[in-house]
Amino acid sequence: MSPRIEWQRNDYSRVPYAFYHDAGIFEQERDRIFAGKTWSYLALEAELPHPGDFKTTYMGDIPILVSRDRAGTVHAFINRCAHRGALVRREARGNAKNHTCIYHRWCFALDGQLTGVPFRNGVNGQGGLPAEFKLSDHGLKRLRVAIFEGIVFGTLGADTEELEDYLGPEVCEQIARIFQKPVRVLGYQRQRMNGNWKLYVENSRDNYHASLLHAFLTAFGMGRATQKGGQAMDARHRHTYTFDYANSDSEEAVNTAYASATPDALKLELRDASFLKMRPERNDNVRGMIINVFPCSIFTQSGNAMAIRQVRPKSPGVLELLFTLVGYADDDDDMTERRLLAANMSGPAGYVAMEDGEAVEIVSEATRSQPDGTSVVEVGGTGPLPRSFGRATDLAVRGFWSYYAEVMGIEPAGGIR
Amino acid sequence: MTASLRDRISGLFADYAWFLDAERYEDWLALFSESSMYRIVPRENVQYGLPGSLMLCKNKDMLRDRITTLLEVNEYNIHTTRHLLGASRFDDPVDDVVAVETPFAVYQTDQEGVSRLFGVGEYQSRISCAGSKLLFEANVVQLDTFSVPTLLADPL
């Protein structure tokens, strides 16, 4: 850890700004988090339905190739040729019989084994590889892959615990609630923010900002903090999920709670609010569910919209956010239409999402000039972290930093877990 | 396709870009018919044949709501825009509707006077020439720059 970064408190209620800007920290995160003992979202099985299908993605800023072999097994590798380190697959996706690097045409099978090297025995008695060179020593660097409810996760950690143990029973249950049936991809939404990846991850865990920053929620009666809902974390605070129930507050409670926050917006009406209407599809009346899996995988349901958000760090000061919009494979046309309309809520133009891009950037901009400054994270209290709590708190942000410090090996003396 | 109709359509696009950049949103909305569809779609979705959008307004009321929330509800990076449109490609009118494809670039300028390319793409438009005034029946904005810089608040 960079010598100028020090935790002021052991309950993570003060977060040094340097974490959002320090290049050394970014390098350590690659080793200890993204290539360490964590599981990351890589793909949906629905994106690779056929033998030979592949897609390229990232884990942190590490380029990854996900590939389904002829027997149907899904593999994942670092997308880096064993020879000179070039990207083996440049395309975003496709179908192939093998993966051949264009630079010197080294050829890898769909399971990552090196199967061919041109001029291996030289040309006209010149060149070629030494006799002791073994193809089997130079396959693509392999990730461990685990699939849960059609979602492909990967890890580079040699001794990462099993995926379902990593997620824990509650998060497994919540993911399974959304991904209970085979899904199909409806589209992608992407944006690129000038800010550190953790600023977005904090944002998606912080339920305090939601109905304040995203005035649309308050204005049009959704996801208000006065609605019945809550948030929970796993025992190690590394994952969290936030939920709310439809139509569960009174007008009076709303007007009292938000009297000073967004007075004008409360008087507005939409001319066509059909896209906000939810067709019931589960037996629980849950309107919104946001599941954050450490470090960068987020699974959401908002009304009839369902999506996966993947946070892709590009550099200490830039992140890409990729939304994968999904429906169920057996949806009727009416439901597909609802999901497509409900996607107006998410992504860079999302009625209740666009502000997050601005929030990330204004924190990044203002904190850069004071590395030893700290944010104040104590809405909902300081000290030990509860497992479940109400809305309008940033306890899950402290939870994130607690596990982050643990996995980075930078906990303060007596740091809470 | 007559030269006069081409001229009128070119004028419609000039107004379209001008009204957006001048934040004359009521005038911009008046360029659309009541039944018009407006959609911003990432080019990767088009490439993969996927239906998902960034903005999807199935009728003019939904487009009006986008403007209302832009002005009254949403928060976004403080900026002005400048649309630069290229030469349109026209099809002959069928039943008084012309299909037009027009390339564009949009720049955003911040409060310190720094401009950045926000995105490039093309308008895939269906324009009704039945009445005295040309109207958009549909405008699909295909965004080549599908990794949107920061966020997308104002229509393109």
Entry summary:
The complex is a heterodimer of chains A (417) and B (156). Helix content of chain A is 22%, strand content 26%.
Structural notes for this entry:
- The complex is a heterodimer of chains A (417) and B (156).
- Chain A has 417 residues and is of the alpha+beta class.
- Chain A has helices at residues 23-34, 163-178, 197-205, 210-213, 215-219, 251-257, 333-342, 354-367, 395-408, and strands at residues 14-16, 40-44, 53-59, 62-68, 74-78, 93-95, 99-100, 107-108, 114-116, 144-148, 151-155, 183-193, 229-233, 240-245, 286-293, 297-302, 305-315, 318-328, 374-376, 388-389.
- In chain A, the strands form five sheets. An eight-stranded antiparallel beta sheet of chain A has the order 12-18-17-16-15-14-13-20, sandwiched between helices. A four-stranded antiparallel beta sheet of chain A has the order 5-4-3-6, with no helix packed on it. In chain A, strands 2-11-10 form a three-stranded antiparallel beta sheet, with helices on one face.
- In chain A, a hairpin with a 6-residue loop joins β7 (99-100) and β8 (107-108).
- Chain A is globular.
- The model of chain A has no long low-confidence stretch (mean pLDDT 93).
- Chain B has 156 residues and is α+β, with helices and mostly antiparallel strands.
- Chain B is 28% helix and 39% strand.
- Chain B has helices spanning 3-21, 25-29, 43-48, 60-72, and strands spanning 32-42, 55-57, 80-85, 89-90, 97-109, 115-128, 135-143, 147-149.
- Chain B is globular and about 45 Å long.
- Chain B starts with a helix and ends in a 7-residue tail after the last strand.
- In chain B, 33% of the residues are buried.
- The chains are: A alpha+beta (417), B alpha+beta (156).
- β12 (183-193) of chain A pairs parallel with β8 of chain B, so a sheet runs across the interface.
